[in-house]
Protein: Nif-specific regulatory protein
Organism: Azospirillum rugosum
Amino acid sequence: MPGATRQSTSNLELLTIYEVSKILGSSLDLQQTLREVLRALAYQLQMHRGRVYLVGEDNVLRLVAGNGLSNEAAAQAEFREGEGITGRILKTGMPAVVPNLAEEPLFLNRTGGREDLEEQVASLVGVPIKAAGTVIGVLTIDRISDEGPQGHFGSDVRFLTMVANLIGQTVRLHRTVAEERRFMMRETFRMQKELRPTVAPIDDVVCTSPNMLEVMAQLHRVAPFKSTVLIRGESGTGKELIARAIHNTSPRKDAPFIRVNCAALPESLLESELFGHEKGAFTGAQKDHKGRFELASGGTLFLDEIGDISPNFQAKLLRVLQEQEFERVGGSKTIKTDVRLICATNLNLEEAVGHGKFRADLYFRINVVTIHLPPLRERRQDIGPLARHFVAKFGKDNGMNLAIDDEALEVLNRCTWPGNVRELENCIERAATQCRDGVIRPDALSCSMNLCNSSILFQYRTLGASVGGLAPSMARAAVNPAHPAAAPAGTPSAAKAFAPQPGGVGSAAAPSAMPAPLPDPVAAGAAWPACASSCAAGPTPGCGAAQPAAPAPLIPLPLPEPSSAMAAAGAPSNAGSAAEVPLDEPESGSLRDRLLWAMERTGWVQAKAARLLGMTTRQVSYALRKYNIEIKRF
């Protein structure tokens, strides 16, 4: 009978090994697989409270799978080498048997799953889990008996050693697969990074801001193709420079790059310039003339200010763009051309289409790939590098060593720059001619001398008027960088602050007729206008003021005077325009009252107030400091 029992036990162990091998190869989830193995041991051979510990990268033995344990208890089961029974098995690499856990001093019971040791005898059998001769974990089980500890555990040790070997091979396979997967992911990422087109630097394009880097990436993506590109942005943002960069990085770089400013030519001359003309087509046409479309064949044609062409010419241009063919003025021969078209405008084409000033079919034809160039005030990270670039360029062109200090860069960084990069270049060149020791400092900048009135143009544009070829600004006012989440100035409250008063634009109304003072823009986080000397005043004075300027309402700027023809026709004129400052200067008032009167009527521009009072700018500046008059900045 004992022989039959041993045979039955051997068959059961063999069946259990078979089940364990199937379980270990059934899933890629290692923890779930090990829990299924422990359940099979408990069900088939009554090996209860099975635990599988694995060594982590920090050489700490942690519980990976266990029968009848909560997640909180499993998280506490950590052993270091030589710590407790489990740590001793890890250190020695040898199996261990504890006949009675209640009498074992090394037993730590960290999992808290053996509180019934006083009621029944629990024996522990533990074996190391090895892979390639290295101990990578520990497998333990409990033998529970009501009759006292068993005397022989040899068969359990041998059986658990076989199971531990199977577990070790499975763990090694999982770790190898995981490591190879991580390696492949790293290699894939590296290859993608290497194959990813890099944003190569382009001559004369200086940019470090994220939005301009995105523009450069878009430039490199669109350059290899023939698609029409529409470059949009305010005047002075560098649209022609970007167009030339697209051409230079395209397969057409060795072909001509022809530029045409559509706003600089009348309609009749523009047609001849683009399409050419035959001899005798009109008075003065002494010979055949090739147009720009012919000259740019195989290359790139850049049409700047395309939003300013007339509706009649838009229809003629549309046929060329669709069919890639045209006839010269006065000719009947159809000429084929292979031209890549790049257009640029600073106008709102959607608004022009809505008002019938721009053909919708031409808009859709040129609006294939659109590149938006941000204004300089929205890419302030580029102001410093651009300023240094222009300083170096000026020094090279004039054979001198020139530099700009950090304080001057801080002043430049607070400006609104309605003229964008073009205005910044002119400002640097103007300051370079004023510096004395080869270093541009704040006192060499025009805004420090009250000679820069660019913010007046910016103020015009934020009111929705085009100024000297500058399209109306889409943003109604500069936004205080200290409060980027502030409401835009295009909101009804801001529009009310910018609205002209009933007394007429620029009229000499009483102070009570002026717009009501705005709330504190710094406290309210609202938009704030540029100061009169082109510096973004905000909470920090940018023009050498000793105190931050108090918030003040924007005084509506004068509109241009009507032409003589309009005046002759009896058209109403603004009798109170700023060009004709009312001569109601207080004769008997004090100098302080006369100074306040002049400053209020000139928009707090010291140079204009000085001319109105017959004083110098230095005298006005001294008087303002003497009478402690806070300069209002717009």
